[in-house]
Structures are given as structure tokens and as C-alpha cells.
Amino acid sequence: MSEKILITPRSYGKDAPELFDRLKAAGCETVRNTTGGILDKESMKSMLADCTGVIVGVDPLDAEVLSSAPRLKAVAKYGVGVDNIDLDYCKSHGIRVSRTVGANSEAVADYAMALILAVARKVPLIDSKCRDMNWGKITTRNVSHSTLGLLGLGAIGRHVARRAQGFSMKVIAYDPFWDAEYAKANQIEYAEPETIFRTADFISLHLPLLPETKNTVGERELAMMKPDAVLINTARGGLVDEEALLRALQERRIYGAGLDAFAHEPPENPAWLTLDNVVLGSHCAASTSGATRNMGRMATENLLADLGL
After folding, report:
1. Based on CB atoms within 10 Å of each CB, which residue in 84, 184, 219, 262 is the most buried?
2. Does the active-site annotation cover 194?
3. Cβ burial, residue 77 (10 Å; 0-12/13-18/19+)
4. Sheet of strand 74-77, all strands in order from the earlier edge strand to the far edge
């Protein structure tokens, strides 16, 4: 009997069709997400019902969804964040979970740096004005020789730090698992989160979404930030209290934000679309041809290994 595999990420195999050949050769029948968007819980329950494996993006895999798939043996995360997967349920039911660690780190770091530049220099706003034949000058803020604060110094955070140093930025960082040797060798200074919020010109989030990191950036933290500070989030939407950030941007209490992740995507509040001091992303930081090939290859091999194929 063939293994039935659900594949939810829309970019899976887009530039590497051989991945489907690899699954077929291993005896797998594939079911794909053709909706053009993230699957909701009911769709996941229906499509996953008789599957033994799933390659999943950010679609929901909570206990309710997982309990609808009694044959499920393996979950291959297409990425690294597993906040959409009920790991306790998987562990208690013998469902193996894997991640594509390192596959997209460079791509996400590139995008984080792109957001820093785009927000600081108001690139989308200037482009929009020029398209309206308004050639007036818009004064923006410097990136070089400023201070970058990183919350999270894992693979992606480290790549962002390296890029920032190319702009002669001072890098300060917090990570609950601090690697003092690495930080010293790479001129990264340790700082507590409160110090980062109070002193950094740019703050970039690279933490996993856990109960203890939810709303890491809230009203209190936004009030600490300098009026010309910029917040960047290429990690998870739940790290930020979005209503508090929206108010801060509307009231011009901080300079701006670059957001590639929201708690609900697209964001439900239409006010986000009216702001000229935020650059919005569709959770696409990892969406480069190189990164998607890496993630697809790693997720496929992880899944097949966990299925014993």
C-alpha cells in the first residue's frame, strides 16, 4: 500500500519538480494544496484524514487537526518554526516531527536587511510618489553607523548581524542560550531586552513563538523605543502585540516597521493598509528559489527517513 502524503506549501517543488519524482519513486501518492493560500483547519482535517505523512508550512496542525489523521506517522516542517504544530500531541502519538534547519537562514537574513533599508529610507513611499510624478525630496534616516538590536541570535540572527556589520552598524543582541564565544569573535555585544528596546535604532526579531515569547513587543516595549526606532519582524506574528504596534505607528511614536509576519495572514485590520511608515510582507522572507529548493529537498528527505522509505 502506498503512503499518502499531503503537501501544503505553495512553493514546494516549484523550481524542483524532481522532488515529486523522488516521492513517487519511494512509493508515495501526493495530495497538494491548490487553494493559493494557507489552509484552514477544516481543509487540513479533510485533506489529512487518510495521510501517513505531511510536508507542512504554516498551516494549522493542532490536536484537533492531528486527531483527524489516525494514520499519520510523520510531519516534515517546511521551515524551522513549529508553533503551528502541537508537538505534545505528536510525541504522545508517536508522530515524528522534523525541520529544515538552516535551509532558509540566508534568505530570511537578506529580507530582514532589505526591510531595514526599505523602512529607514522609505523606499516604497518614494517609489509611490515618483509614480505619481511627484519628484519632491523625502528626508529619511541613516542606517550606517547606527545600532542594531537582535532579539534572537540563532542562525538567522547571526546572518543578519553579519550583514549589518557591512553597514558599520553596532550590533547588540539577546538570546536565552547565549554563546559568549561566538559573540565575542563576531563583535556582538550582549544586552538585556530592555536595553535593546531603549537604545537600539533598529530592532529585529528572530525568536521562536513560544508561550514565553508571545507579545515580546507590546505597549510597554514600544513606549521604551526611541522615536526614530524601527521594528523588523521576519519571524512570527505572535511575537508582537499588533494592535499596540498599529497605534504606535498611527501616532508616529516610532519611525516605522517592516513586517513579514502577522498573527493572522493577511492581517484582519484594514488600517495596516493605510500606513506609509510600515512595509508589509506576505511571509515571503524565505521565498527565494534557492531557499525553497533547499527546504523542499530537506523536507522530502526528512519525511522519507521518518517513514522508513
Report:
1. 262
2. no
3. buried
4. 28-32, 3-7, 53-56, 74-77, 96-98
pLDDT at 199 over 80: yes
Confidence of residue 300 (pLDDT cuts 50, 70, 90): very high
**Known catalytic membership, residue 283:** yes
Backbone angles phi, psi at 80, to 5 degrees: -120, -25
Residues 91-103: pLDDT tens digits?
999 999 999 988 9
**What are the CA-CA distances from residue 289 to residues 10, 81, 101, 218, 301 (Å)?**
13, 20, 17, 34, 18
Alpha carbons within 13 angstroms on the beta-carbon side of residue 224 total: 17
Pairing of strands 3-7, 28-32: parallel
The CA distance from 304 to 6, in Å, is 13
Whether 206 is catalytic: no
124 phi/psi in degrees, rounded to 5? -60, -40
Work out the angle at residue 285's Cα, subtended by the Cα atoms of residues 284 and 286, and round it to the nearest 5 degrees. 90
Q: What is the pTM of this model?
A: 0.87
* Strand bridging mode 74-77 / 170-174: unpaired
- Cβ–Cβ under 8 Å, residues 140 and 194: no
pLDDT beyond 80 at 142: yes
Strand extents, DSSP E, the chain: 3-7, 28-32, 53-56, 74-77, 96-98, 147-151, 170-174, 188-190, 202-205, 230-233, 256-259, 278-280
Nearest to 156 by CA among 73, 261, 228: 261
Out of 158, 159, 163, 283, the active site residue is 283
The one catalytic residue among 10, 22, 141, 265: 265
Q: Is it the case that residue 1 has pLDDT exceeding 70?
A: no
Residue 293 has pLDDT above 90, yes or no: yes
